Amino acid sequence: MVVALIVICEVGFWVLLAAGLAARYLLRMPRTGAALLLCEPLLEVVLLVVTALDLRNGAEPSMKHGLAALYIGYTVGHGHRTVKWLDGHAAHRLGGAPPPAGPPRYGMARARHEGRIWLGTAVGAVVATGLLWLAILYVDDPARTGSLESWTHVAWRAAGIHGLIALSYALWPKKAPKGPAAPADAAAPGGPGGPGGPGGPAQSRDPLPVERR
After folding, report:
1. Count of alpha carbons within 13 angstroms of residue 110, beta-carbon side
2. 42-54 burial code (b ≥16 CB/10 A, e <16)
3. Spatial contact of 192 and 200, defined as CB atoms under 8 Å apart
4. pLDDT, tens digit, for every residue of 89-128?
């Protein structure tokens, strides 16, 4: 049930996001669009409550509970960036706003950008760890909570690997190709994680309002 709810929450996130952006920019109903976007954090609340009830009813702590904690942590750390990126592109394509600026591609500006994305991953690991330890305290049975403890290690291994990747951009800054048309900090079209799309290990899902034109 918990695994199925994770899938439902992920699908619901994109459905609410599409509906909110369509209401805001296609139907010219900004308040309705904002209300739909603000409903997205409720999906994580529902998942959290169902997971807690599942444990309370005697379910054996397992992969599904660890996965639910990581999913919630991921959306807290990276969901906001995903919503902001898509909102900016929707404002440009549907609302007549200027095209959103892409992330920097070269030098220390790129390194700082990668560092900010890693901070989202670190926040996600902290949130997931907190939820897992609350579950461990809630179950209060060391013989049954080993799998939950192992998921805290998964969260921090992911954060550590991502941190090393982000650090590599500071230790070995990417250099711009030589030529007058390639400034060192040129921004590339793409999502919050880099050129070409959202990228980055995504994002609380509360949206940032974009000015309508």
Report:
1. 22
2. ebbeebeebbbeb
3. yes
4. 898 888 888 988 888 999 999 999 999 999 999 999 999 9
